[in-house]
């Protein structure tokens, strides 16, 4: 879902079957969205729940004007448990075994919340600036760690429930899920690492199997970080040396060009001086010759 729009809605607090939804507003907003992007389609509606209501089926029938199978999303604005605060439903016709008329009911469908990369970066930067002044740094860190552990506990419980159902043949084996679980288990420390022992044969208390396994895993990760830092530093030094060499070459080329320019200008000045001196001498000779000719004429 990319855009969403709030719709005017009213409901009688005493009688939930009495409600009003402005479908004219829905149609007008739908036409406006079409003008902006014709590829977007209305796929369903949502409300703040937190549970299903008696009028949801009737409202869902109203939205069938715009889409054949509308999706209902219930958003819990005040979540009490860690996890996705949304539940998605589709309306289906339930066929009864006793042969009576079919009735419509909602069936739950799994849902996830994702965002584009630009949106995720924006939300992360926004959340960094939001801080509760009344709460200290230590208490905030402990609260975050507690929430993380609660979320991890819920995920591990879901994994255990799924594996138990697969073991009891209640669910088919999904190799893709099992492959992901194997990748997760491969990231855990190797608990079969033999413990270190003292020269006298007694095991150290600090180097139990779990402690040694965690230390080996941590050392492997730190070794990777250390090698990455070395490679990054060597690459940075290499770029620095290349940059200095380029700057030195450019400076030498500028000095060479400057010397060549000065030499050329000095040669031009010498040529001009020579040319000026030759012109003066020639002019003097002509004046002398003209003077001598004039004297000769006068004598004759």
Automatic annotation (TrEMBL):
Domain EIF3F/CSN6-like C-terminal, residue spans: 117-242
Short name of any one Pfam family annotated for the protein: JAB
Region named Disordered: 246-300
A cellular-component GO term for this protein: proteasome complex
Record-linked InterPro entries: EIF3F/CSN6-like_C (IPR024969), JAMM/MPN+_dom (IPR000555)
Bias (Basic and acidic residues): 246-275, 283-294
Keywords, comma-separated and alphabetical: Proteasome
Official protein name in the record: Proteasome regulatory particle subunit
